[in-house]
Amino acid sequence: MTERIVVVGAALLDGGRLLAARRSAPPELAGRWELPGGKVEPGELPEAALVRELREELGVEAETVDRLPGSWPLKPPYELWVWTARLRPGSAAPQPLQDHDELRWLDPSEIWSVPWLPQDVPAVRAALAYAV
């Protein structure tokens, strides 16, 4: 059995809104929306990987809050783990620096107004419980 590789995602919350990021690459994912994040590097703690990925992808300083219960399968051997997160005081506003071409803060009533990547939908549903 192949060892699973953890991909971390951030349910980045601000005032009840959730940050969604539109993929610009690879071509098969471009135009679909996801929770920002990325792969955990060997020897890296998942929470540290998420903080690093948010810095690299969005140019923000963030902190993890709570891990959402469960995990979600991605393309093998990847598995998605999601944390709620918040911007640290004094952080820059999120910008689409890497792999994304647009960001949106979505109110709970707007969550389903964007075409999420299918593998992110269960995690977004779980994150909604924290957004209200």
TrEMBL record:
Key words, A-Z: DNA damage, DNA repair, DNA replication, Hydrolase, Magnesium, Metal-binding, Mutator protein
Every copy of the Nudix hydrolase domain together lies at 3-131
Tell whether Lyase is among the UniProt keywords: no
The GO terms describing molecular function are:
8-oxo-7,8-dihydrodeoxyguanosine triphosphate pyrophosphatase activity; 8-oxo-7,8-dihydroguanosine triphosphate pyrophosphatase activity; 8-oxo-dGDP phosphatase activity; 8-oxo-GDP phosphatase activity; metal ion binding
Q: What is its EC number?
A: 3.6.1.55
Q: Name one GO biological process term.
A: DNA repair
What reaction(s) does this enzyme catalyze? 8-oxo-dGTP + H2O = 8-oxo-dGMP + diphosphate + H(+)
Name the protein family.
Belongs to the Nudix hydrolase family.
What is this protein's record name? 8-oxo-dGTP diphosphatase
Q: Which organism is it from?
A: Streptomyces mexicanus
